[in-house]
Amino acid sequence: MINREVLLEVKNLNVTFGKGKNRYQAISDVSFNIYKGETFGLVGESGSGKTTIGRAIMRINEVTGGEILFKGKPISGKISKDWDREITQKIQMIFQDPMASLNERAKVDYIISEGLVNTKKYKNEADRLEKVRNALLEVGLLPEFASRFPHEFSGGQRQRIGIARALVMEPEFVIADEPISALDVSIRAQVLNLLSNLQKQNDLTYLFIAHDLSIVRFITDRTAVIYKGEIVELADTEKIFSNPIHPYTRALISAVPEPNPYKERAKTIEIYDPKLHDYMKNPPSFVEIEEGHFVLANEEEIALYRKRTTIGV
Amino acid sequence: MVDSNGKSRILSIQNIIIKFKLRGQVLTAIRDISLDLYKGESLAIVGESGSGKSVLVKSIMGLLDKNGFIDQGEILYKDYDLAKFSTEKDWLKIRGKEIAMVTQDPMTSLNPLKTVGKQIEECVVLHQGLKGKSAYDQTLKLLTDVGIHDVEKRYKQYPHEFSGGMRQRIVIAIAIACNPKILICDEPTTALDVTIQAQILQLLKNLQEKYGLTTIYITHDLGVVAKVADRIAVMYAGEIIEVGKTHEVFFDGKHPYTWALLSSLPQLGAKGEELYSIKGTPPNLFKEIKGDAFAPRNPFALNIDFVERPPFFKVTDTHFAKTWLLHSDAPKVEPPLSLQEFFEEGRRYAHD
Q: Which residue ranges does the record assign to the ABC transporter domain (chain A) (predicted)?
């Protein structure tokens, strides 16, 4: 773990919206590292701030406090023009809704090469066409599709176009914000497989934002669970599922419906009540409870969680 | 209507065909479906988008789009044939009062300009014939029934003052206020968070028992199905290809499409390996479909699948599947390996 190269570092990130009375703290003091080559999952419910974190890394949302480092160099706040251009290319995003994220009036060719044009990342017209062609082939579409409009495609195909648009920039780090939740069940599997194959071929690192835990379990290596702008638990994905510690994580996992009528009906659903924490006197901190397994808790809770982990309940 | 199994049928769909006129072409959305709904049960209709699951239930409520029409078949409910209904006046006898619906998105199904209390009370007045104080009291009771606290204050609030889950509870209260016999839930939790989803499903289950409802769930989420359904009907390209009790379809599914749906669940996949995915795309419903609609995407397809449409083969008294693989002359085909383990596990649970 220690030897692995850290690609992206988020340090004490704060994001607030609005001013004065309307000030709203969307992200408070979030820190995590993403290692090169891994798939890092960010799970939470709507309004938890998971997308805001993704957007802060993309520099769409302004960072109010803390910093974000890419390959050890800051990418938040004021940065040099060259570095800005470089990370614009190195960090790409795949969006949730393929119906909304493609320009309806532009041909696929334009959609895919827009980033190339903006960063002048091609030698000549022939080179640009070649890059678009390769990107389409890579995501399993035909090169002829370049001359068509987005409405001619199904949801799954449109999502592939969205992926091609990210790939053509030759990124190192891709933020996938709920990339399959708008797709049909049978198409989901296709797109998930495509994402994992591309990761292997192109040596990509993913930040996978999702609310569906069964998909997160399948695709991610490590997972952070986020609740109301704070990460409450972070560990290897299997650890999160086999030994969830924070009561919110436990509630979240218990709520995921399982495709097994017997199990599903026998199961009890845990409900998370934030009032159970006594944080007025004894504020929580983000502590490592076992190797690589972090949880947000105060001293009292840590003692309790530690006991539970060692006896393996 | 009493069935041979001694259960009473509340709704019976027979050989229904539904078509749509679109840009001068005719699309066949429902291709000859027959389905019985039994009193007190909860039936889940499962399928991908475009499989026709929503069209099917819309036809039961008379909510088909203007360009859609029932080409053939009957929908029998009480003494009516709903397929023959043509005027709004006919439908008002059924809608709400007999069959009510909870739709997917609670943001759009409520009136933003009216307090939620008034919206529920409207139905109470119209369908239960109550007035004034008694209608108000009944509304408060309904609000309590759907798990809303502080009802007197909540009565006076507008939809925007509620969260998504709470709004869905209001929509459910409106549906229940009509005292329906059948409740149709069209993707009732798709727009909600998982923790809220679990609560809403539990609520629907409780209400079903309390009010003696018969429910139809439409969903693509097999986890939801596992939680709520007694019976499952799997739809593909406008027809029901398999129907049976929940555990029969889950753990003894017979149609390759049912296998494919189950296999593509991430829960069944092994990390780092390819997840099973269905190749190709669903058929074009503008064209006439020959044989089994799933055949071109089906790795187990037999020659006959491309020529003749399979009839329903009986697996048990309650379980039927439309696949030639069940014919006595068909070669023996085992479901995919990962699925066999899943079936095994399910059967073990059934034993315990």
A: 10-253
**Does B123 fall in a domain?**
yes
Provide ipTM, 2 decimals: 0.82
Give A-chain residues touching B220 at CB under 8 angstroms.
Answer: 184-185
Question: Given strand A205-210, what is the order of strands in its sheet?
Answer: A91-94, A173-177, A205-210, A39-43, A222-227, A230-236, A293-297, A285-290
B-side interface with A, Cβ within 8 Å? Answer: 48-49, 164, 193-199, 201-202, 220-227, 229, 246-247, 250, 260-262, 264-269, 271-272, 274-278, 281, 345-346, 349-350
- State the residue range of the domain holding A230: 6-104+170-238
Contact between A272 and A247 under an 8 Å Cβ cutoff? The reply is: yes
CA distance B201 to B160: 22
Distance in angstroms (rounded) separating the CA atoms of residues A299 and A282: 8
Based on the domain organization, do B240 and B185 belong to the same domain? no
User: Is B2 inside any structural domain?
Assistant: no
CA distance A243 to B81: 55
Residue that finishes a domain, picked among A238, A257, A290: A238
Domain total of chain B: 2
Number of other residues whose CB lies within 10 A of the CB of residue A82: 8
Which chain A positions have a beta carbon within 8 Å of B259's beta carbon? none
The SS3 call for residue A294 is: strand
pLDDT tens digit at each of 313 positions of chain A:
556 899 999 999 999 998 888 889 999 999 999 999 999 999 998 889 999 999 999 999 989 999 999 999 999 888 899 999 999 999 999 998 888 899 999 999 999 999 999 888 889 999 999 999 999 999 999 999 999 999 988 888 999 999 999 999 999 999 999 998 878 777 888 899 999 999 999 999 999 999 888 899 999 999 999 999 999 999 999 999 999 999 999 999 998 888 889 988 888 888 888 888 888 888 899 999 888 999 999 988 888 888 877 665 4
Task: Report how many helices (DSSP H) and strands (DSSP E) chain B contains, helices first.
Answer: 12, 12
